[in-house]
Amino acid sequence: MTMVRTARSGLAVMIGLLALAPVGHAQWFSRKRTDNTTVSPNLKNSLAPYVTTPPDVVDRMLELAKPKAGETLYDLGCGDGRILITAAQKYGAKAVGIELSEKLVKQARQNISGLHLEALASVQHGDIMQTDISGADIVTLYLTTTANETLRPVLERSLKPNTRVVSYDYPIPGWKAIDEIQRRVNNQSHPIYLYQIPASFKQ
Questions:
Q1: How far apart are CA 199 and CA 87, in angstroms?
Q2: What is the number of alpha carbons within 13 Å of residue 172 lying toward its C-beta?
Q3: CB-CB contact of 192 with 168 (8 Å)
Q4: Strands, E, within the chain: which ranges?
Q5: pTM for the whole structure
Q6: For residue 48, what pLDDT band results from cuts at 50, 70 and 90?
Q7: Which has the closest alpha carbon to 166: 71, 68, 37, 75?
Q8: Rounded to whole angstroms, how far apart are CA atoms 140 and 73?
Q9: Cα distance between residue 142 and residue 78, in whole Å
Q10: For the chain, what percent of residues have pLDDT higher than 90?
Q11: Torsion-angle region of residue 127: left (phi > 0), alpha (psi -120 to 50) or beta?
């Protein structure tokens, strides 16, 4: 697959995210988090800042991925479970979240339970670098470019051909998107990338 990169500085990205985000989605770099939640000592591979996915982005990510009833979606760094809930409610997909924060795992499970979606949506407390995602038909990400690059070998090793991967705001370096849409906020463009796992990465 051809290389897809941005010119964003990792430091600039982190400063921008921390300045703009009141709450969050995904996973923080250290075991002590800015929202006063903590992660278990044996779960150390935090990859990205915890920033909430806006509701309209959730909708557009799923519209791009086109889930079908019965397909399995994994949200890596699922936060409060909003992508899982929408995938289950709107599309009838089986939705599995992976989250490092014990507090957010509890919150997401409560949100799912409150909507009686336990038959379709669930959350695992775990490290996305060490979780089996081989059953995914769709993977959703809101991490960073650096985190996506770190995660890429896991995706390439684990995901079956034709699995769709949707990433908000940040590309997966080394992969070529099959589709891309733009979200405009305050005259700034925020891309949503759609990838599809090929038959083989050895091209």
A1: 26
A2: 29
A3: yes
A4: 72-76, 94-99, 121-125, 138-141, 164-168, 179-185, 188-196
A5: 0.77
A6: low
A7: 75
A8: 8
A9: 9
A10: 67
A11: beta
